[in-house]
Amino acid sequence: GVDAYHPEKYGNTITVERTIRRNGGSGYRLLSQKRTCVSTKKMDVDEIRDRFNLFVENPCCILDQENAKAFLKGNASQKYNLFLKATELEKMMTNLHAEKVVRKRNEVEL
């Protein structure tokens, strides 16, 4: 489509495979529509994630075991922190704080 990400390289679909090894290591493979490996670099996975605004850390998108445990057994504070992550408010507050720091620095320079 119009917003396709490098269609000449990937075709109509991009498949991300992640391998997690017993020793704790992991790796990625980006596959084209023809299932051929285009890249194994995490940087390329991150570029695709950023390009399409995919929030894989969001517990509403992917509820991993740790977040599920925090939700089921957590106290009110832990549940609120999970809410902040899920709604992206935590990220927004971090970005807002960083912008305030930059603004103060720029005001001092003027």
TrEMBL record:
- InterPro entries given in the database record: P-loop_NTPase
Query: Which GO biological process entries does UniProt record here?
Result: double-strand break repair via homologous recombination
Q: Which GO terms describe its molecular function?
A: ATP binding; damaged DNA binding; single-stranded DNA binding
Q: Record's superkingdom?
A: Eukaryota
Q: Where in or outside the cell is it found?
A: Chromosome; Nucleus
Q: Which UniProt keywords apply?
A: ATP-binding, Chromosome, Coiled coil, DNA damage, DNA recombination, DNA repair, Nucleotide-binding, Nucleus
| GO CC list | nucleus; site of double-strand break; Smc5-Smc6 complex
Q: Which Gene3D superfamilies match?
A: P-loop containing nucleotide triphosphate hydrolases
Q: What family does the database annotate?
A: Belongs to the SMC family. SMC6 subfamily.
What name is this protein filed under?
Uncharacterized protein
Give the source lineage, highest ranks first: Eukaryota, Sar, Stramenopiles, Bigyra, Labyrinthulomycetes
